[in-house]
Design brief:
With 197 residues, the chain is α/β, with parallel strands linked by helices. It has five helices and eight strands; from the N terminus they run βαβααββαβαβββ.
Length: 197
């Protein structure tokens, strides 16, 4: 059975709202976008490459899908180590507003029964399914018990406001730390598994 592995970047106070650039997601008046790139180093970049290239497919929410579908088909030559697998491998998109056919090659919408669709994907042969970004989809799959592993880069910055990885859930969840490393920039690369997994 394939695993669902969530890949996230977050601040020390749990914010995931736009890590990469200030204009990526200013919703709710968020003014601190672009907090993440300064914490990349060779170790963390290699982890991104390993994650993307090892995936059998990707799970994406609408916002992440639209952002990726704009960028990766037109990626520069320097970005091809990431662009090739992202463009060529299957992408499964959770959205109630998009309709098929989706414009980015090898992309298809998940149905209205998210749990059943993701369970069916996990039963298929192939590499693990990597959920990239997409915090609302992460929260939904976590609540459904369908996240097997969380790989998170925790940057040593506090931004105080913004969308948080775990949202406002009041349901306690136990995770087991499987691995952790500290980057040269002081970020923590941690891997957690669902307790008992």
């Amino acid at each position: 059975m394939r695993k669902v592995i969530a890949n996230e970047w977050m601040t020390l106070d749990g914010v995931v709202q736009p890590p990469s650039s200030p204009d990526e997601d200013p919703s709710g008046g968020f003014r601190h976008g672009g907090w993440h790139p300064q914490y990349f180093d060779d170790m963390s970049m290699q982890r991104v490459v390993d994650t993307v290239t090892s995936a059998g497919g990707y799970l994406l929410g609408r916002g992440t899908y639209e952002l990726f579908a704009t960028h990766w088909p037109n990626a520069s030559e320097e970005e091809q180590a990431l662009a090739r697998p992202l463009n060529e491998r299957p992408k499964y998109v959770a959205s109630t507003t998009l309709s098929e056919p989706l414009g980015w090659e090898n992309s298809r919408l998940l149905g209205t029964d998210l749990a059943a669709d993701v369970r069916a994907l996990k039963e298929e042969d192939g590499g693990d399914l990597h959920l990239i970004g997409s915090p609302l989809l992460f929260q939904s799959l976590l609540a459904l018990g369908l996240v097997d592993e969380l790989q998170v880069m925790i940057d040593p910055v506090v931004v105080g406001s913004g969308k948080r990885l775990f949202g406002d859930t009041d349901v306690p969840r136990s995770l087991a730390l499987a691995d952790s490393r500290i980057t040269s920039t002081g970020a923590i690369l941690a891997t957690y598994t669902a307790a008992g997994a």
